[in-house]
């Protein structure tokens, strides 16, 4: 350990997405290759001597305790735990979460020493993994609110690869087998159906970790919500969601020394007649078992919606992935031009 193939794969995966900015400490990690990367893992991150690094991924992450703060992380999967190597700026930006993040090392901040904090979720504490719509993100859940993390990969390939690696590592865990199921009688079998919770597709791994995938009802709920915004509930069956993708909306910041832009995470939904941008809560749904009350906000909140017929042109940048698209719409909002022209010019 490790094999040449694994070292080459981890080196290839060790690339920060070009559109996201990270601190100097994480840039240092991204500069490591091959054996240097594995040695860095064993000397700085690994908690036990005999654990093996199996997978590396760069992803935006959200914590259940800080649901409004998306932060870049280097996610390392080993045979013992999942490690989230985070920007040090994340701790200082969210001062009121001092009970969540340990700040013993804050005396280092004025030195040339660059600090990263590492959040650890041991595989033995892992209870379930919720995969988001179209594999755009996944949520890892442990025993408590502190152990809920969503990885916003915005990439079905990265999600799929991580889930496959995680399942392989979980297969190595020696867990006590589940107790034999008790034979249910007729009344308990059919009397507990009205829980009001939507049943998703569940795959229970041999390690007893649940892998939960969305079902068709979730798309149906989303279509109903979109139809509600479009006010077309009458012909709901004809409404098709053509595309669901996690993207960023680019907001240009003017007045700065250089023309910088900030990226706002958005969910883009395309139907046959409209284009919508939603603010989506990726961390609170489905509700964890220990949640005492529903989340503060709805899962989907509409921020913008435009008709495709008002779309004038689409501008495409020439840079490599991720691609920048600019949608240019006509200024006329909520007006049917043809109807007005007919009345004014061709009616009696």
Automatic annotation (TrEMBL):
Molecular function GO terms recorded: kinesin binding
GO biological process: Golgi organization; lysosome localization; regulation of protein localization
Record-annotated Nischarin C-terminal PH domain positions: 241-347
Cellular component, GO annotation: endosome membrane
UniProt KW keywords: Cytoplasm
Residue ranges of domain PLEKHM2 PH in the record: 114-178
Cellular compartments annotated: Cytoplasm
Segments crossing the lipid bilayer: none
Cytoplasm in keyword set: yes
Pfam families: PH_NISCH_C (PF25625), PH_PLEKHM2 (PF23142)
Organism the protein comes from: Dasyornis broadbenti (rufous bristle-bird)
Protein name (Swiss-Prot/TrEMBL): NISCH protein
